[in-house]
């Protein structure tokens, strides 16, 4: 009864499904925040169906809800999604998608599916991890987005329930696991400072873009200085 | 209408970005510095969004119940609380303070 191969496969499936359940939980917060930011239930659901990248979705509704222009919202959301291209790069030798199969593989390429896939020990297990997590998160995220949107719609005044503070907490919750060393902490501080200084002086939505630009500059310069120190 | 344009444009860009990872020659994205910048981009953006969502009302910076919510969220994260708990605690804090007439 101890077939190591099928045991390994079911371990991957369990891992993928538990990630899907955990992600589904914050789909509820996304759905509620999106409608209280002024998007309709339809727009909220289309975001989860078509955009399908949590951080980018939170950024889009955050900037729109804060009064930023559509252009600024799309720019913030798109910059936050740039990392997904790196995931595709990592997953190309694993998934080797060809023709039309590149469409679903690309669409499901997000933090969670990549993390589960690359954590496995062989390519068949990595592919299994990718599909189980990707499809599981997709279904859970879209279902809970709808539930959250409907709940948010019936709440009425978002401030009375502290949903604006919930949005701030959502962003800090997404940021927290990335603060794993001196460099990300420094870049987070720079991003926060640039935003604080620029909010009163430049149009809404642009401080996020400026923070991204300055943060990128710091990241661009960082390793160079370190290697010189080491040398 | 503006919101629909933003929703559809952001969705199109997001898909194009994901797709690019599978078709762009690896050399273009694999340079260490490019990797570092793309890896750090979310950090700068999220930090900026935290500030905006906590302290801004359009063009003004204010200190209100949202800041208390954020402080509670940070404590919850430091205690390794799950995402949904962090969000609910922050919302509850701000809602409670407002019910008491502050912020």
What does this structure look like?
The complex is a heterodimer of chains A (231) and B (103). Chain A has 231 residues and is mainly alpha-helical. Chain A folds into 2 domains: 163 residues, no CATH class; 53 residues. Helix content of chain A is 79%, strand content 0%. Chain A has 11 helices and no strands. The C terminus of chain A is likely disordered. Chain B is 80% helix and 4% strand. Chain B is built from 5 helices and 2 strands, in the order αααββαα. Chain B has a two-stranded antiparallel sheet. In chain B, a hairpin with a 2-residue loop joins strand 1 and strand 2. In chain B, helix 4 packs antiparallel against helix 5. The longest helix of chain B is centred in the middle third of the chain and has 24 residues. Chain B is elongated. The model of chain B has no long low-confidence stretch (mean pLDDT 90). The chains are: A mainly alpha (231), B mainly alpha (103). The interface between A and B is large, with 100 and 76 residues.
């Amino acid at each position: 009864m101890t077939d190591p191969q099928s045991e390994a496969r079911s371990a991957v499936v369990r891992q993928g499904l538990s990630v899907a359940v955990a992600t589904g939980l914050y789909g509820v917060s996304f759905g509620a925040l999106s409608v209280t930011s002024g998007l309709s239930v339809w727009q909220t659901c289309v975001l989860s169906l078509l955009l399908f990248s949590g951080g980018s979705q939170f950024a889009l509704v955050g900037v729109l809800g804060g009064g930023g222009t559509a252009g600024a919202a799309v720019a913030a959301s798109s910059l936050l999604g740039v990392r997904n291209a790196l995931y595709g790069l990592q997953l190309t030798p694993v998934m080797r998608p060809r023709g039309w199969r590149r469409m679903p593989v690309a669409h499901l390429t997000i933090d969670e599916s990549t993390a589960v896939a690359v954590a496995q020990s062989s390519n068949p297990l990595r592919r299994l991890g990718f599909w189980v997590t990707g499809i599981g998160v997709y279904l859970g995220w879209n279902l809970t987005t709808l539930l959250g949107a409907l709940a948010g719609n019936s709440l009425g005044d978002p401030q009375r329930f502290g949903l604006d503070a919930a949005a701030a907490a959502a962003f800090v919750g997404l940021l927290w696991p990335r603060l794993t060393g001196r460099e990300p902490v420094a870049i987070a501080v720079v991003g926060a400072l640039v935003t604080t200084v620029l909010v009163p002086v430049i149009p809404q939505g642009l401080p996020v873009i400026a923070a991204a630009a300055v943060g990128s500059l710091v990241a661009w310069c960082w390793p160079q200085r370190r290697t010189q120190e080491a040398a | 209408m503006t919101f629909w344009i933003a929703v559809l444009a952001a969705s199109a860009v997001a898909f194009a970005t994901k797709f690019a990872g599978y078709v762009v020659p690896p050399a273009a994205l694999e340079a260490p510095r490019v990797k570092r910048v793309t890896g750090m981009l979310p950090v700068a953006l999220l930090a900026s969004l935290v500030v905006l969502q906590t302290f801004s009302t359009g063009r003004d910076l204010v200190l209100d119940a949202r800041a208390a919510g954020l402080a509670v969220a940070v404590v919850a994260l430091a205690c390794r609380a799950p995402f949904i708990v962090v969000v609910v605690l922050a919302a509850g804090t701000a809602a409670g303070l407002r019910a008491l007439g502050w912020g």
